[in-house]
Amino acid sequence: MDRGIIRLRRRKIDSTEEDNLVTNLITSTEFCKEILPLLRKEVFHESAREIYSWIDEFFKRYHKAPQKDIQSVYDRKSINFKEESADLINKYLSRLSIDYEQKENYSLKYELDSALLYIRRRNAEVTTNESKALLDRNELVRAEDVLKSYFRLSSMFGSTLNNITTVMTDADNLLKEKIESPPVIIYPWLMDGQISMIYAQRGVGKTWLALLLAVAVSRKKAMGTKIGPWRVVNRSGVLYVDGEMGLYYLQNRMKMLSDYYGEGDTDTPLTLLTAAKYVEKYGTELNFTKMESRQALYEYLAERDKYQLLILDNVSSLMPGIPENSKEDWDPINQWLIALRHLHVSVIIVHHAGKGNTQRGTSGREDALDCILKMGKAVDFGGSAYGAKFSIFFEKARNVPQDKGMAKFNLMISDEDGKIDIISDADT
Q: For the purposes of burial, counting CB atoms within 10 Å of the CB of 342, is it exposed (0-12), middle (13-18) or buried (19 or more)?
């Protein structure tokens, strides 16, 4: 059977709504940028669902619409289809290929508005069918989860004018509001809703420091203790997302830190989400360049107010494939971090230094950051030969008291004989 398809051309105005949506996703990069973050495969029917998956995968890899490359994508994928499935998709693609040339008076705004209306209607239809089927099987909790997901997604389609108008505040009224200062977790720099970065060259001790902070703020015994010139002043639940460490080594470090700072409790849990366990269970990497992964983590934290701190260790392993020098590609992640800030969740990003010994990649990554902590190898700092020894210096500290806690200092985490000791040359 000939599975080739004719060269794709833009559909004429009389195409169905779904056909028009798929064709615009194939042919328009701008359309993909606006629409793909709002889509889920359930809004499509049968063969269109498969094509949407191809487009989504292609766009995330190459940051453009597939256009004529949809032919090679089809040829590459079709070998895995049963004959009847390939035939169905072939016919569907051929039907979309009636008029790939730009149609007269083509308006991106019109196409986007039409697509948004279609997606909203299909989301409502799909949600209704899913929730009804679950309720028929007495799966109430899953039905509620489907509805919660729908309402969160539908809020993205609300009237922008209405949304903006609703949250506008008169300047005089703002001055009258009682707005409390954000709680401090580690004095003087780690506060509620703050976004920070810790970065260093390989092997300096980034993960040691990140784990130390995670354990210290989640342990009752650690309250009031010092980390160099810093002081732990409030407990916080922590979600620690690790992208590359082996479980054996992670367990060893966690055991030593727990022995040092004490065991945790349910009031301020320290929860680990590791790439190692995720790959073991699902056969794929954690990847927060994907909107669905970011949304899942956002929803998890939104529903669990015990977590006031999220640590992402590290950018390279948890956000693979993103062009590091592209501010535009970082923007969706930046918006996600800001959304977490509005949940009153502090975020610490762990990152690598580049060849110039600055944080690797676009400087646009720094725009939303409140604090940037640079780590280096400790100089003239004795002690154990085991563990990590490093210096800590603030490159950026927005809205932070400029006292001795912000001065550069050296820290040593000794792990000799399976026990740690934490020593600093700071004036404590």
A: exposed
Q: What is the pLDDT of residues 287-297, one digit of tens each?
A: 998 888 898 89
Element (H, E) at 210: helix 206-217
C-alpha to C-alpha distance for 230 and 216, rounded to whole angstroms: 12
pLDDT attached to residue 101: 52
- Among the listed residues 105, 118, 88, the one whose alpha carbon sits nearest the alpha carbon of residue 20: 118
Q: Are 192 and 393 in contact (CB under 8 A)?
A: no
Q: Write down the domain spans for the chain.
A: 1-179, 184-424
Q: Select 184-424's CATH number: 3.40.140.10, 3.40.190.10, 3.40.50.410, 3.40.50.300.
A: 3.40.50.300
Tokens 């269970």 sit on residue? 281
Helix and strand element counts for the chain (H, E): 15, 13
Q: Using CA atoms, how far apart are residues 61 and 243, in angstroms rounded to an integer? A: 20
Confidence band (pLDDT; 50, 70, 90) for 45? Answer: confident
